[in-house]
Design a protein that fits this description.
Strand 1, helix 1 (10-19) and strand 2 form a beta-alpha-beta unit. The protein is α/β, with parallel strands linked by helices. 47% of the residues are buried. The protein has helices at 10-19, 37-42, 63-67, 79-92, 115-122, 137-141, 155-165, 179-201, 206-226, 237-248, 253-262, 267-274, 279-294, 299-309, 314-319; strands spanning 2-6, 25-29, 44-45, 51-52, 58-60, 72-75, 99-102, 127-132, 146-151, 171-176. The N and C termini lie far apart (46 Å).
Length: 336
């Protein structure tokens, strides 16, 4: 069995290290300009934290070489890179039978499409699945256990990915057929995580955090179900599970963005200092555009968008949420 990991950022490297013992042949691919000599020669990376790969892992910038004969191809690049990388896969001769598993969480701008929609456009015959859940990279690297959902419209593809990407005692996978719900849960929780980090930095308390997570989930469910997701999916691993982990942990890049916004830092400076992608920043723009298109109320997401992209006082933007018109709390899972 051959595994190929496309994208050797922090999560790509951690997945490579985690899964290497499960495969006979392992390849990692990245753009030539992103490959350090230390990674190429010593199989080591120190950015944003240290990861040592097994010596038998092959590292390359040659896409055709990387994917040739691969049984599973993990797509671990930023959402903005999904389309161009899929175009490279097509040019490199990816076979429809090879299982492509996307791990990127977000929406494409300006199209507002989910990653599976982008993949389907570029590779219409490709077997693919979506992997999403509470998967903070550093904890996975340290061998701490977690679980995630692997979703596909084809149950056999989901079961195949589940079987070969499951790591006993460390990385437990559950299959799911709700691709839309799994994708929206993983994407939109990043926006709410920025809000949670903001509140944490201002020491607004656990009650405020509990409220922002709950009302944030309400926004995720509203948008997701309007576009065909099963509401029950959002109470699972790719929804509530990922939301809790990302919103409560300082290891989360999006949580860190929120904390730094609360310190009065500008978003460009924050992203430079962070040195890695925080998908919630772009997703806040995408969800605002999408919710306006659907005529759906998403006040927390809009507050994040304003805090990220405007010059107004961020604290006032968040406190305004407490002054909105009173309303009834929605019930998403109604009894029959």
């Amino acid at each position: 069995m051959k595994l190929t990991v496309l994208g050797l950022g922090s999560w790509g490297l951690v997945l490579t290290k985690l899964l290497t013992p499960c495969f006979d042949d392992v390849w990692g691919w990245s753009r030539k300009q992103d490959l350090s000599q230390d990674l190429l020669l010593n199989k080591k990376s120190k950015v944003p934290f240290e990861v040592d790969l097994d010596k038998r892992v092959n590292i390359t910038h040659n896409m055709q070489e990387a994917i040739e004969g691969a049984d599973i191809i993990l797509l671990v690049v930023s959402t903005s890179a999904i389309r161009p990388v899929c175009e490279q896969l097509r040019e490199a001769g990816i076979k429809p039978s090879q299982v492509l598993v996307n791990t990127s969480k977000g929406l494409e701008l300006p199209s507002l499409k989910r990653m599976s929609e982008v993949i389907k456009e570029v590779l219409p015959l490709q077997k693919f699945a979506v992997l999403s859940g509470p998967t903070l990279a550093r904890e996975v690297l340290e061998g701490k256990p977690t679980a995630a959902s692997v979703a596909s419209y084809d149950s056999d593809v989901a079961k195949f990915a589940q079987k070969y990407l499951n790591v006993e005692g460390k990385f437990r996978l559950y299959t799911n057929d709700d691709v839309i719900g799994v994708e929206f849960g993983g994407s939109l929780k990043n926006v709410i995580a920025i809000a949670a980090g903001f509140l944490s930095e201002l020491n607004m308390g656990d009650n405020a955090t509990g409220a922002i997570l709950t009302r944030g989930m309400a926004e995720i469910v509203r948008v997701g179900t309007a576009l065909g997701a099963n509401p029950s999916t959002f109470w699972g691993l790719s929804g509530m599970g990922d939301l809790i982990a990302t919103c409560s942990s300082p290891l989360s890049r999006n949580h860190t963005v929120g904390r730094m916004l609360a310190q009065g830092k500008k978003i460009d400076d924050i992203l430079t200092e962070l040195g890695s992608v925080a998908e919630g920043v772009k997703t806040s723009k995408a969800i605002c555009e999408l919710s306006e298109k659907l005529n759906i109320d998403t006040p927390i997401s809009h507050a994040i968008y304003e805090a990220v992209y405007s010059k107004e006082n961020s604290k006032e933007i968040f406190m305004n949420l407490m002054s909105r018109q009173l309303k009834a709390e929605e019930t998403f899972l109604k009894k029959n």
